[in-house]
Amino acid sequence: MFTRLIAVLLMVVPVLTTAGTIDDIARLEQAKDTGAQTAEPPAAGRSEKPGANRTPLKPVWFHLNDGRSVDISHWQIVHFIRSDCPYCHRFNPTLKAVSGQLGIGVFVYSFDGVGDAVFPHVLPVNDGILKDFFAELPQATPTDFIINTQSLVTIPLSQGELTEDTLKQRLDESFALADRLGVL
Fold it and tell me: For residue 129, what is the domain's CATH number?
């Protein structure tokens, strides 16, 4: 358990974002405000400022295995896929089901710019996104991160196909880590 914690701590990478990524994060929050589970790509030429015309978010409580409850209303799962990835096709329904159960949104980037039946609305990966999210990790699919849409703190969540129970365990470990680091 200690080595797993050290491994997770070593993977926590401060994310320096580009303007495009900040705009994407603003759309993540806007999608959460409207109750959407996946955000649609923005209309061409449309620009929104983070926090513009927004009401405060209602708390979303995640119950950690140690009995504590933490508010994850400002957190989002950022999910990377390829339309031809068989692991993504098997994992995507699990991710969508767990995100719906927990009330955490999923924002999807695609390495080939194409979605699938579960996540049809995706944004294509660009060089800035690759630099922001994959500076320390291999570009594999599926890959998931949790990101705080207010502070942009990003924590790697998983790479590869997971079961529902394993995904929930990883979320528990990641939010417990965020809480211990004081970034929750």
Answer: 3.40.30.10
